[in-house]
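Entry type: protein chain
Record version: 2
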Amino acid sequence: MSAGPGGQPGMTKSISEDLRSRVVAAVDNGLSRRAAAERFGVGTASAVRWVR
């Protein structure tokens, strides 16, 4: 098994709170979750989860 960032097997890349806040703010300002995810380079599922 390969180690992810941070050296932990199976761990995914950590996303900064600032990035999460910017994605949520973009959606609050009218961008779709999918468009916000694409703009900020994160997964659509992550954007959907953060906006809930």
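Comment: The two ends are 33 Å apart (CA to CA).
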